Amino acid sequence: MASMDKEGGALFANNRKTNQNAPDYRGELRLNADTVASIKQQLESGIQFPAIEIAGWKKTSNSGTVYISMSGKKPYVKDGEPARAYQAPAQQKKSGFSNDLDEDQIPF
Fold it and tell me: Does any domain span residue 51?
């Protein structure tokens, strides 16, 4: 895995998968202070789910292990445009349904 003293990270195939719900890949992503400050600013401005941009490159280690090298940074904002707001979905009715349909829209 990449050095712990620089930003970035990697995803590797999960070779310790114990059930079908376990993740297929595992790894970590280290963020620089600028990206962390962006997350903090997003939270302080009321964004419930702050976002970062991620990128990945398929690579092969010297030992032949295929993995995804990753980077993360604050979201790109075009000059003169407001940052995209990743807000939580609207509060759902307490009917027990977890989809976007009202109970009245269900045909049965």
Answer: yes
Counts of helices then strands in the chain (DSSP H, E): 1, 4
The model carries a pTM of 0.64
Say if 94 falls within a structural domain.
Answer: no
Tell me if 105 is assigned to some domain: no
pLDDT in tens, 75-101: 887 776 665 554 444 544 444 545 555
Q: Please give the tally of structural domains in the chain.
A: 1
Q: Return d(Cα 27, Cα 31) in angstroms, integer.
A: 13
Cα–Cα separations (whole angstroms), residue 50 to 10, 23, 96? 21, 22, 27
